[in-house]
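REVIEWER CHECKLIST
Item 1: Sequence provided? yes
Item 2: Single chain? yes
Item 3: Sequence as submitted:
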Amino acid sequence: MRKKGNRDMNMRTRLINFPGIFKMKKDKEKATEAFYMASQWKLMWRKLKRHKLACISVFILLLLYLQALFAQFIAPQGLTSYDSKYINCPPVKIHWFDKEGEFRFRPFVYGLKTERHPETLRKIFTIDTETKYPVKFFVRGEEYKFLGLIKTDLHLFGVDSPGKLFLFGTDNMGRDLFSRILLGSQISLTIPLAGILLSFILGILIGGISGYFGGVVDSIIQRIIEILRCFPTLPLWMTLSAAIPPQIPVVQVYLYITIILSFIEWTGLARVVRSKFLSLRNEDYVMAAKIAGLSDFK
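Item 4: Structure as written out by the authors:
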């Protein structure tokens, strides 16, 4: 009797929950169908969203490129600005509490004064707690061209003269390190990207041709790759820097050398792509496409 009662109870529970079970099964079938019908880009995006470290890396990378794009607006000083009075100045701290311990809604920096060390006689910087300079947003400073188009002198933040705001300190010429790092990122984040993009295109194109066609074409390309991989990097850098005319600006020299080296650095990626094509060209869907009359390019 107990077994029969338990069996009846289980049947009632299944009947009550049947619509929910049917809906879950239907949703699962839809998800499975959407997965198999999804494009390659959707599959890549789904995999990227599940990879937390990759998402964090993409966010940081986008943040770095945004600050490089608006570096002249964010930087308090220009690339050539300097002050010989503040050579090797330590970082200036932004304060929210004054010397009495009272909280200030507007952050501020104290003034700087120079003294001589009693033993070494070296110039040292000390904080002048009697003078305060509030940190302001959208202040006027050195002129520049915003995004290379609009001429303006508006900067994101700064302090009124004679106050100084050196977030990372200064170098041995009195130049603000924070501003120079921001402005230098425009070069270090863009020129290597162009070189990598060029190597990426060459590696995929030449490696794909080598792996797909094989035979004599593959042998010739692989021998060229072996010759290019024999060039030592450091002597090549020195040769290229000596071959470029000296009157060309340093940034352009860096761009030219990066582009030239990208014509050599594609070899590693080409071999990886070649190995993939060697395995994929024998797949059934490739044979079916050939039978259907598709060209090699398609």
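Item 5: Key structural point noted by reviewer: The two ends are 71 Å apart (CA to CA).
Item 6: Recommendation: ____
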